[in-house]
Automatic annotation (TrEMBL), chains A, B:
GO terms for molecular function: DNA-binding transcription factor activity; transcription cis-regulatory region binding. Keywords: DNA-binding. It comes from the Bacteria. This is Transcriptional regulator, TetR family. PROSITE patterns: HTH_TETR_2. The keyword Transcription does not apply. Residues 11-71 form the HTH tetR-type domain. Residues 34-53 bind DNA. It holds the Pfam family TetR_N. Gene3D superfamilies: Tetracycline Repressor, domain 2. The keyword Nucleotidyltransferase does not apply.
Length: 196, 196
DNA sequence: TGAATGAGTGGCTGTTCACTCACTATTTTG
DNA sequence: CAAAATAGTGAGTGAACAGCCACTCATTCA
């Protein structure tokens, strides 16, 4: 056993830093969060973060890819353990899974920030496109539902992103009630409540 | 006639600067675009931009409010001139109007960037909330459709924002075809083509 | 054990940017 | 026409930040 090691391997560090990057970039987005912020969260020096990832853009991109990886894994898990194995049953299970997954907001906000940074940082744009492509392909081939249902699925997801960023789930006004009605949200409904 | 004036009034300048701010912030978002960028676009000095708007955040917020104002105006126009005056007919007309309106991308991208900046800059967050609230209230009271249709309407709008930022309308791949199928997009379909 | 490699850091640098201020030029008003 | 008010600018300031480099300390391996 090597538990008396005081240094990590570079790969361990990279994983830890990616995880910190997800949490930190989710707070303020690409431009508002500094490498020093991420480094502090990971407990290492800013210089070493840059040595591990060569540029801020690549660091953000790595975080984003991790984000899509987590979502994909959750879709797979939900799909495999769905009670109702019909196409729409599987899709519904994945919807539930997504709602649970983004309860902590990090994965959700990172996507919002990535979308904003996509044009100025082409690498990020490609990562978003790749992530959405992979998610869409997986949903289509795994569920076999009609195309419009997948459109719908993503559309509602995007609406959920918007409603979360403006805290609509906590607003007590007609417009907010109207928009959040029936939209599953981990914080808004105790798990186990009937959906729709 | 005062055409020999060489100085503008502050109000004229403000309007011009807001318009420049919409166009400029739409390119890179709140953090990536500088006051100097906006000033150059408006043809005045950065110092004077700051004198007219006191802070970068207020400038961005003014641009965002202008954005919602334009959308709202277009909704009103479309609603009033809808051929089919039934609730869903009016809503459809507004959907068409929105698709046309965001053909130039500025209004669309500004919203995407605003969503990203909303948490770090609370003033922007409030402006987004206010804009969505006003839009939702107007849609609900003017069209009188069921709530879920308005949800749907906004959800598809948000999906459209995503698809535009990743240029999905120009991608020739199954996932892109699937997601853009039937989604109206000013650049994608010549005006006058049958929708749905 | 000692050389080679890898982990990790402190401090610097050049640049960029929001915001300030003292100032000039123009327009209005009495 | 004088003076008050308004439009507009140039030059600067201080802070923040990405990326770089020379360096130290730990680990491995021959």
């Amino acid at each position: 056993m090597k538990s008396d090691r005081v240094l990590s391997t570079a790969d361990e560090r990279r994983a830890k830093v990616v995880s910190s990057a997800v949490a930190t970039f989710a707070q303020g987005g690409f431009h508002a969060v500094t490498i020093a912020d991420v480094a502090k969260h990971a407990g290492i020096s800013p210089a070493y973060v840059l040595k591990l990832f060569t540029s801020k853009t690549q660091l953000f991109t790595a975080a984003l890819e991790e984000c899509y990886r987590r979502i994909m894994a959750e879709f797979k898990r939900a799909g495999d353990s769905a009670e109702d194995a019909s196409p729409t049953g599987v899709l519904d299970a994945m919807g539930e899974a997504y709602a649970d997954l983004i309860g902590d907001r990090d994965l959700l906000m990172l996507q919002v920030h990535a979308q904003s940074a996509a044009t100025v940082e082409p690498l990020i744009g490609e990562a978003v496109r790749g992530g959405i492509a992979a998610l869409t392909d997986y949903l289509a081939s795994r569920t076999r539902v009609e195309g419009w249902r997948i459109q719908q699925f993503l559309a509602v997801g995007q609406l959920c992103h918007l409603l979360t960023t403006i805290d609509a789930f906590d607003v007590d006004a007609p417009w907010a009630k109207l928009l959040t009605e029936g939209i599953r949200h981990a914080d808004a409904r105790p798990s186990g409540s009937p959906a729709d």
